Structure formats: structure tokens, C-alpha cells
Here is the input.
Amino acid sequence: MTNGSIRLNKQAEVNGMSSNGSSSRLSRRSFLRWSQSAMAMFGAAPFIGSKAEAAVPTAPVGEDYYDKLGVTKIINAAGTYTTLTAACMPPQVIRAVERAALHPVYLHDLQVASGEYLAKKLRCEGALVTSGASGAITLATAACITSANGSKPGELPQNAGSLKNEVIVQKAHRYSYDHAMMLSGAVIREVVTLDDYKNAFNEKTVMTNFFNAAEEEDGPQAQIGREQWLEIAHQHNVPCHLDAAADMPPIENLWKYTQMGFDLVCFSGGKGIRGPQNAGLLLGKKHLTDLALRNTNPNGDAVGRGMKVAKEQIVGMVAAVDWLLEQSDEANEKEYNRRAKIISDAVKNIPSMQSSVVVPKIANHVPHLLLKFDPSVVGVTVPQVVERLRAQKPRVELNPNTGHKPNQGIPSDANTLVVGVWMLQPGEAEIVGRRLHAVLTQKA
Ligand SMILES: *Cc1c(COP(=O)(O)O)cnc(C)c1O
Here is the structure.
């Protein structure tokens, strides 16, 4: 595109990151190579791993619009949170997006071809790149209403009341994304017990929804488990949607749930998968993913018209899946534990400090560092630490479970800092460790 980007691509190739490289699983060595090209891409400070060759930093390409707009950059020690713009795309994904952006295509051709490609890679019948998991939930619901009624996409949501439009959900699985189902005109029928569930099926039922992470040990106490939920829906010939938006890793979850028999499964594209933040996946039975496609853009008379997925996001999503399938959960976990150790080592001499690492069971299933200390000994409170880290440039953002009661599989409390290490860029664990030490020893 520009001389700069050509230089960058060359640098990436020197670092062993050409996208047509081997598809071998990610070794520590290739991770380090990736780190270096990521660093070159993001213009981070030089990073020299123990066994790595010194990296040759390359200036980032293009204008820095965060600086131009006066928007403060953050070091993401939180995780894949939507408000923090979730993940950053790996360099090979950014390059694929950059290339795709240079050429128009027929959007429908791209939607269909990307769906077929993803379905094959992710071992399911049908796939659709959506505007995110939330968009996928709306389109899943629209597909199930359209399927049950043999109706036209143009009827939703305004005619849904006169169509079959009920979705069954456990009370403990009610969440803000119910809104995404209601957007298609669905009405939610809430159940608690197994008997409630069995009795809830009627001539208006079109779908059931299961919030995957609600099975978390310390999550809401739902009475009906995943497999039983699915089995009973299928006894009534009703399709079952699973919301697994934040539930990768492990990588195999991308096919595990469709292979269990869930008719539709959604994932967020911009969380662990590290695609564009406004992309997602709807995977499952082809007749339903086909109907989801008919309910979305570019069709104007469709509930999904406003959930546009541009060529850049479609290609970015496919490239992110390709990238992900070259990774290994074990190598990633090892790297996250390495980062956690760098940070805990940096603060281990703070009096009363106790560190531990926890991996939530379902959503955000990666090591998180817990740093618990006694504020009366250290002379600083958890909210003060959070505030001080935010006051710096770039601001360091800790996991929102910091200072919180146990939540989402993270056993935090008022005196615990939670550091999410998986979204840190190369070299940032060291910065977070230094900053944490500084704010914990800073005189008020
Ligand atoms: C993040 C999330 C979503 C929404 O995902 P987007 O890709 O941001 O639309 C939906 N459901 C759950 C459980 C999530 O964690």
C-alpha cells in the first residue's frame, strides 16, 4: 500500500511470519517471532526474549489517530472487554484486512464463500460471519422464527406477534443479550425447573437459548445442564442456540458444541479469537445459517440490515480463524503464565502480598493473576491502585473483577487486584509489573 507497509511486510517475513508459512503448531520460538513482528506492527519498545534474537523495530505505518483525536491508549491488563475495544488483531490478520480493503467484490459471494470455508475449518454444516456475537444471536433468532413459520425475513420484527415467536430460556440464564433475541420479535418464556421446561414447549416455540458460561461453578444456579437442555429441545424438534461468545479457548470449543448437537452456536470474533471487534461467528445447521444470511445485510427489508459486516470484517474474521488454528492452547497458556510470573515477581517484596493464578472454567478460560494485599500494611487501597494506574500514560487497565466479590469464576475480593494477562502486547507484562510496584510503594 505504502512504502512503509511494504517495509513492514518484509520485516514480518524476516521474522518468519509470512502467512503462507508452515501450519505447524505454535512453538515458543514461533511465538517469539510472532511477538517481534507484533511489536514491529504496533511500534512497541524492543522486546528481547531469553532465547530470541534481538528484534528490529519498524516504525508503525500511517497516522496515529488516537493521538490526533486525543484518545488515551491503554495497556490492557483486563481482558477481552467490549468497553476496552476487546482484542487486538494479530499482524497476519491485519495484513489480510489491508489487502482485502483494496478490492471490491460481490458482498454475497464473499458471505457465501467465507461461510463455506469456515464451516469446513470449524467442522460444522453452516457458518456465517456476523457483526459480533450479539448480532449472531439476533440472526439466530430470526432464522428460527423464519424457519418455524415459513415466513419472509421482511416480516420481522413487526409481524412477529402473529407468528410463532417464543424462545425458552432458564431464569438463571436471563442476561442483557436477551435484548438481541427480542430485537427479532421473539418473546422469552422463562423456566426454572426441568418440569417447567418440558411443559413450556407449545405451538409457538421456535428456539431455546442456553448461556454457556452460566454453567460456571459459582455462576447462577441453573437447574438444567447443557446436555439435558439440548436433548429435551430436540425431543420437541425445536432448535437450540448456545451462546459461547467468550468461551474460546480452548480452541476445540469452536467445534465441540456444534458436534454435541447444538443447532446454532455463536462466538464473538473480537474476543479470544482476535478478529475484528465488530465480527462474530454463527455456526451450526446449514438450513439455519442460510436463513440467518437471508435475514441480514445487504437485504434492506431484514432485521439484520443494520448489522452490516463489511468485506474487511469478513476477511478479518476468516483470517483470524486461520491464525487461531495455527495456535496451541498449551503454548498460549505457558506464555500467559510467564507474563503472570513477571508481574507477580515485580511485586513479591511488597509486605503482605500474596499472589495466585486462577483459570475460570468456561468464559475467559485463561490464567488470571490475583494479587491480594493488606491495605493497612501497604498504605494504599485497591481503588487507589486502580486510579493511579489509570492516571498514567498509557493508562493501565486492570481486570474489572479487581476489588469485586467472586464473579465469573474469579475469586476476587475487596483487597485483591486481578490482572488479565492474555491481551498484553509483547513487553507490556514488564511495564505492568513496574507500574504496579511503583503505585503500591508510592507515598500518598
Ligand atoms: C461478549 C458477549 C456477547 C456479545 O459479543 P459481541 O461480539 O460483542 O457482540 C454475547 N454474549 C456473551 C456471553 C458475551 O460474553
In short: Residues 40-89+328-440 form a domain with the Aspartate Aminotransferase, domain 1 fold (CATH 3.90.1150.180). The pocket of pyridoxal-5'-phosphate is lined by residues 82, 132-134, 177, 243, 245-246, 268, 270, 280 (CB under 6 Å).
